[in-house]
Specification:
three-stranded antiparallel β-sheet; Alpha-Beta Plaits; 3 domains; alpha+beta; 20% strand
Length: 298
């Protein structure tokens, strides 16, 4: 049996044109990307920063917008460079894949996106800033940090609370220190037989004597309610939120008025309910003779 030997010869110049074309295409892509990205990023980021600074946007939002513009510019530069280099078909396939992926990610991260958007509005609108005491939906605390996705607060028990920004953006939010002055209101109940004028004078005098209470608006104590067990006078004093603590002043106010009422002999009745009417009880008893008798009582 005769063996057959087959020789395979490769000419060095056979693949040279293809290699040259591939290298040229890559070079064209790299050069085109570099030129488009550098020029486009320089122009786009400068335009975005100037426009946002002119409109008074927060610096954190400006930085975010500039970074996002840089990323978008890079994506556009890749697309244009690929088109110039002749990668149009491949680019189209990747664009379809990227679109489907973006759609899936968008559905999976709706809450994250909502919190992010809410954070942008919070940073821009500034309903509160770091150091403010805010309350919402029965919760409250002092703002420690505002991020684009969450806001961190410290409670008065020194607990850290992390709140999604969407919750704060959708809630009816109270900023207790947004205004330079704030009223401290406390309801004091006195007996119906007590002198309203004496009680009012005691409340106003004790309130005005507390450190940090403003002279204007002047302290007041109008009658606001006739309760079941007491006449309610609303003690009202004003403080500067930058210099005085609401909680500390309120506690001093309550204690001072209670002590003064005790000294003046002014009653502070607790809530009670008085029932009036007749009570009739009926029952059946058996007499000595075994007969049944009806007994009634009041």
């Amino acid at each position: 049996m005769r063996s057959l030997q087959h020789g395979l010869s490769i000419a060095p110049g056979q693949y040279a044109p293809a290699v040259v074309d591939a290298v040229a295409t890559v070079v064209v892509f790299v050069v085109a990307f570099a030129v488009i990205y550098v020029l486009g990023k320089s122009f786009a980021t400068r335009a975005v920063r100037t426009a946002m600074e002119t409109r008074g946007f927060d610096e954190s939002l400006i930085g975010l917008a500039v970074s996002t513009t840089g990323v978008v510019t890079a994506v556009v530069a890749v697309a244009l460079a690929a088109t110039v280099a002749g990668f149009g078909v491949v680019l189209s396939a990747f664009a379809v894949l990227a679109g489907a992926l973006a759609l899936a990610v968008g559905f999976a991260s709706q809450n994250i996106i909502a919190n992010f958007v809410a954070g942008v509005f919070i940073v821009q609108d500034k309903p509160f800033v770091v150091g403010d005491w805010i309350e919402w939906d029965g919760n409250g605390g002092v703002v420690r940090e505002v991020r684009l996705r969450v806001t961190k607060l410290d409670t008065f028990d020194n607990e850290l609370v992390t709140v999604p920004n969407r919750e704060l953006a959708d809630a009816v939010l109270i900023n207790n220190v947004a205004n330079p002055q704030r009223r401290v209101s406390v309801g004091f109940g006195i007996g119906y037989d007590d002198d309203i004028g004496r009680a009012r004078d005691a409340i106003i005098t004790e309130g005005a004597a507390i450190d940090g209470v403003l002279e204007e608006p002047a302290p007041a104590a109008p009658v606001t309610e006739l309760g079941d067990s007491a006449v309610i006078l609303s003690g009202r004093i004003w403080i500067d939120t930058d210099e005085s603590s609401y909680g500390a002043v309120r506690a001093q106010f309550v204690e001072a008025v209670k002590r003064r009422f005790d000294e003046e002999g002014i009653d502070m009745p607790y809530h009670n309910t008085e029932l009036s009417g007749n009570l009739e009880v009926t029952g059946r008893t058996e007499g000595i003779t075994g007969e049944t008798e009806e007994v009634a009582g009041d």
